[in-house]
Amino acid sequence: MGATEVSVQAAPSRQKAEGAIAASGAGAALTRQTLAGGVRAGLAFMLQGTVVTQQAVQAQSREEQSRGQQEGGQEPAWSQQMELQTNDPWAIPLVDTPQGSTKRLASFCAATSKLTLRYGHADSLHNSGVVWSRLLRIHPDLLQRVEVNLSVAFEWDNHLLPFPATGNTTVKSLIDEICRLLDLPPGPTGHRYLKLCDSDEYLQNEELLGLHETIQTSCKLKRVVPLRLLHENNLRHRLCRDGEDDRAPCQLYRLLRPVCVFNTCKLSLQDVLSSYNREVTELMRSKWGINVNTLKFRVRSICNLLCGLSCQELEDAIGRLNRINPTPLSPEETSEYGMAMSVLHEALLKVLHIFFDNFQSDFRGQEVTSDLQKQTVDVEGHTEILRFNISALYQLQRNWLTKYVCLYTYCYECFSLSCELTYGGTKICDTVVSENISTALSSGNKIQCSRVMVFPVVVNQLPYECMLTFRLKVSKRGKSPELLGWAVLPLFSDRTLVQGNVLLSLSTLAEPPVRPSPALFDGHSRAIGVILQLEFPNQPEWRYQRPIALPGSLLFTEPCEALQRKRLNVSKKHCLCFLTHNEKEFLWSKRHSSDKGSTFLHLLLGGVPKWRPQDLTEIYTVVENWTILQPEEALFLLSDE
Per the record, which residues fall in region Disordered (predicted)? Predict the structure, then answer.
């Protein structure tokens, strides 16, 4: 248990402490004045953001233990309460997640921690602590006649000496020449570096001088490049990790979260959850239905703190509670009430799980355990069409749902939600639209719509990089629909088909001119603005498996002279956007007689008519049999986005 969690439980509100003491049945002899003083002090520390250290908690424990022995030998109240919360089946604790509450960010932090563990701070090769200058690869023969005008300073002296050099000289050879000129003792390789005076970048010792991007830019502009010769012991502002960095866990959420106070939100949610716990415990103890309305109010308060989020199981459980009479319960009604409370509790845990699984936070509710083992299946076996439900819209503005008395001003009549299924900016099928979501269905600032979106395409026929684009529009009487917000969602994430409940924060910015990409999805993971709730099938877990190349399936055939000449003429265009549709089809149709001497790989793959799953095996076979000589050839395979 972290220090923050201990501080929250060690300093409860007065009502929470009194309820815990009464529920425990222990006759603690603490006076009301002493209890109130401890509560006020604890709350003051929490609101100021002070982290109670473990030593302080232990000191408080020893103090209360001695006080309890003097006043009757009872255990301190805060330890009784912690034990009760641990054993209370209706308690819903909040757990600190400094690494982030979502699986995506938590897995990224875990992977980063593994890398730091594999490459420790003592590994000078992978933890040099310097910023290496970027390289732009060109043929070394082009650098023979390139003259570079340098000016070199020794260590941190400001006196610069002119030093001409050629572009095909290695940085290490240049350092050795400078050392001979300055009559410096030659050191082991890698003990001296050349740093750019006007930047924090360092030249790479084993690379040619003319391959560095900064050197090439300076030569084009005919500028002198100021350098500084430094010994590795005299490097300043190094960024290398130390032992403390290796020991500290990777926690990126604190670096990504927006500027707002989350501790207050956590305290508010924990306080309402504690009130819910007290109401449920009292109702189960008294077997009296008079406080059912108070319990429903606590549940709605929890949902309101979660942007109004709900689920069908929670609404059904609240409906069962509405049928309970505010009178003493009979044995049959007690059994029904217990079942309703269990369903309500599980549904509330599910709502917390959905919220913190989709929106980033530094805390979350306890994990929902399930007896069912989720089965993992290859997506090739998914022979059903793509379909999912639109569950609800949350945080709609009031003026969208309420009529005004002012002349010519009315609320929106209905909403419509459209969804496009695209691959590489191209629609796979027609846009699916759910129309006439009436504003009359609104409850507060949310609408439970429960619409089904169906796409007439089988899931195992969809490419891995498919994107879903949602657009929320509204209609006024006599006016055309107006766009309120949009969001994108990758069909696959981490090789897994999207599943379960998904929350998307709709963006009100103008849609980007480029085609949708997974990078845009991160902008919808903050609980702001209108929130769209989607429900995908949760069982089983469909996994995408990379196709296996078949080396023997692609046999090279020597092309005739006319074919070779035509292919070379097409390949001279170099860029895929300059090729016509027929030229793209021509290159792909002659793939069995293509090699690195006749065309380029990015032009050949650009001619694939459709990147369907059944075509991927042959595509991977072509890629693995293609010899790539320069890294730039692989960069051509990337899109503009």
Answer: 58-81
Query: Distance between CA atoms of 65 and 145, rounded to whole angstroms?
Result: 84
- Residue 212 vs residues 130, 171, 173: alpha-carbon distances, Å: 15, 10, 15
Q: Do 139 and 216 lie in a common domain? A: yes
Number of domains in the chain: 4
Phi, psi of 365 (to 5 degrees): -80, 170
pTM: 0.65
Alpha helix positions (H), 48-132: 54-70, 77-87, 103-118
Digit-coded pLDDT (tens) for 400-440: 876 544 444 456 788 999 999 998 788 899 999 998 888 88
Cα angle 317, 323, 326 (rounded to 5 degrees) comes to: 115
Percent of the chain clearing pLDDT 90 (strictly above): 23
Which CATH number is 137's domain given? Answer: 3.10.20.90
Which residues span the domain enclosing 538? 376-543
pLDDT in tens, 348-407: 999 999 999 898 888 888 776 665 667 889 998 999 999 999 999 999 988 887 654 444
**SS percent in the chain: helix, strand, coil, step 5:** 40, 20, 40
> Is 29 in contact with 74 (CB distance < 8 Å)?
yes
Residue where one domain finishes, among candidates 491, 525, 543: 543
